[in-house]
Amino acid sequence: MEFYYFAAIFTLLFRDFFFVTQGQGEYSFLREATSAPAVSYYDYIVVGGGTAGCPLAATLSNHATVLLLERGGSPYGNPNVTDLSAFGKAISDLSPSSPSQRFVSEDGVINARARVLGGGSCINAGFYSRSPADYAAAAGWDGALVDESYEWVEKMVAFEPKLEQWQSAVRDGLLEAGVRPYNGFTYDHLVGTKIGGTIFDGEGRRHTAADLLSYADPDRLTVLLHASVYKILFTRKGT
């Protein structure tokens, strides 16, 4: 529910965004890890192309060279990810190439984690909402900058939903139970009942954190798919 909120927080740190008009799945910087050279150099290496890693890599690439490593594949071209009509199929897919990976928690609960560029936004439900304003204030963040960062995300992945009958029934039930005021459709975190955003557009296509890579400078960003990271080595010069 809050995964895009966390992605937006990372954009607070890196400004002056550069927008690249790329078609979904046509990113020139997507490559398989097996095609990587034996040695290469980057200003930044981002491990994990999820809901934080994608916007972080995109914004960093506007001022530096960036390598983004993702252990899964691309979400584009996989209807189990992109199509609302296939909602839930990705989680039930247990194949090695599945965008989700089943695991059992320490307390015995069966769950699934993302294994795909775009992270949890590719397999989870698509409700979008901003955090309460006092959260950002308590953290000492610039409120205007926070709002700009949310808008940056919303341009790519957030949409006003068309309510189905059951959703309308839930809304009406909340209002009848006294959960007021009715705030209508809004991304803001407000007391009462509201209609939040969805990451599925009007044609039933899912939009994920991977779409935020459209903001990247393609000449400075490299994304390696099926790239698992097992060890990170740090070197220190001097004393």
TrEMBL record:
Keywords: FAD, Flavoprotein, Signal. Its cofactor is FAD. It comes from the Eukaryota. The keyword Signal applies. Residues 1-23 form the signal peptide. One of its GO terms (molecular function) is oxidoreductase activity, acting on CH-OH group of donors. Residues 42-235 form the Glucose-methanol-choline oxidoreductase N-terminal domain. Gene3D superfamilies: 3.30.410.40, FAD/NAD(P)-binding domain. InterPro entries: FAD/NAD-bd_sf (IPR036188), GMC_Oxidoreductase-Related (IPR051871), GMC_OxRdtase_N (IPR000172). Pfam families: GMC_oxred_N (PF00732). This is Glucose-methanol-choline oxidoreductase N-terminal domain-containing protein. It comes from Genlisea aurea.
